[in-house]
Amino acid sequence: MKQLSEHYIDGARRSIEGGEVVRVLDAATEAPRVDVRLGGAADADAAVRAATKAAHAWQTLSPGARAQYLLALADALESRASELAEDISREVGMPLKLSRRIQVDAPIAAWRATAALADDFAFVRQVAHSRITMAPVGVVAAITPWNYPLHQITGKVAPALLAGCTVVLKPSELAPSATQHLIAACEAAQLPAGVLNIVSGGAALGAALVSHPDVRMVSFTGSTAVGRKVAATAAGDMKRVSMELGGKSAAVVLPGADLQKAVKATVASCFLNSGQTCSATTRLIVAREAYPECRAWLEQAVAAMTLGDPAGANTRIGPLLSATQRERVHAHLAEAERAGFDRIAGGPDAPVPAHGFFVAPTVYGNVPADSRLANEEVFGPVLAVQCYDTVEEAIALANGTPYGLAATVWAADDATGARVADALRAGQVDVNGARFNPAAPFGGFGLSGMGREGGVFGLEEFVEPRAVQLP
Ligand code: NAD
User: Which residue windows are coiled coil (predicted)?
Assistant: First the structure.
């Protein structure tokens, strides 16, 4: 079993003495995999000091020179891509083939795409007699979750570094291996000391970073519950915050749309990474008269989702991260059963492998709009189907949760789909199965957060415009 007991501060690995240890298990076998030692407030302070010391030299480099480091980091990560994909698959539960593509190759491409923004982004602009310079915000605390560990880190750290900020990263302690590869990549890329500091810790270390007076911005991805606390603390010092939080995203199937295609795509989105995806489509909103046909397509689509060993060539759904996550999901299933929702597939008693934190892909129909299942993030493989009588009602249902991260519209034609998309309060809306665009802004309305990641929008989060008026 691996022992992880170090921070990466001021360009060097520093071992952690004492402190709590968190044991991370293999999600599919439950075998112990990694013991992670957690640091505390003193480590947060040391990391912030290192980032502060490195800030001046880093921000005086040209954006192009900073971009070269991002490219070197991408190359170093690429040289470790197979191990990264396997580690993330074992910790988080995502099938290996998908892990390679989504958890590893996509973030590596994002490091490179962010580097390319150095050529396009106007760090200096002229507005009449004002010269506007886009100054880096300052030291950034980046706090990330476990479900797409490298992806979430990349979405913050790459643009922050390109903007000229120095960073203290506190990744999730529950999926720690990606961080080890990132530390090795920083060393291989010869990133200047203190530019990116990586600390091992949990809530206490995270909270110490958020309240540190020399941190100027907190970029947080995680649950809405923790995000609220983080934003409230950060407000005390008027720190800038960027919040990527939870979701309860809906697919709206309009009359005349290809129902079978919509169902297949919704099932794929909802059950990706065992439902441990912030933007998962966890609600399917269909016309009442289409419900019987929809039900049949759902049964068929879920039956095709092979559950099992994440290393298996045909596996589409692996386990959840941990027993704690499985229990959370089971609590939702028990409530749905008690309420008597129409169980279309799966359920708490559906067969799953004897070992590993598995939950069978589950679908409930006729889920009322005021139920917990229709409103709360489950973070497991559970889809809720809701019925509408009019298109206005479908839009109201889609907008009817406190969240607003993503949505999908299925329509007979793209123009109709786009019109309905414009009525949805969600940060990302896909029409008729259009694919993810990493250069488009990603983020949420409502309790899904504030601020955006992705492309130029993600970079803008990390700069302060400074207007200099010239006579
Ligand atoms: P979490 O909120 O429990 O933890 C996120 C991070 O915050 C972790 O690093 C954790 O150690 C840290 N943390 C915990 N308490 C803290 C505190 N008081 N102060 C500072 N930091 C603290 O979330 P999680 O369980 O790791 O991740 C799952 C959640 O993340 C889901 O709700 C999911 O929707 C959300 N998420 C959102 C996006 C997005 O882009 N919108 C992406 C991925 C995940």
Answer: none
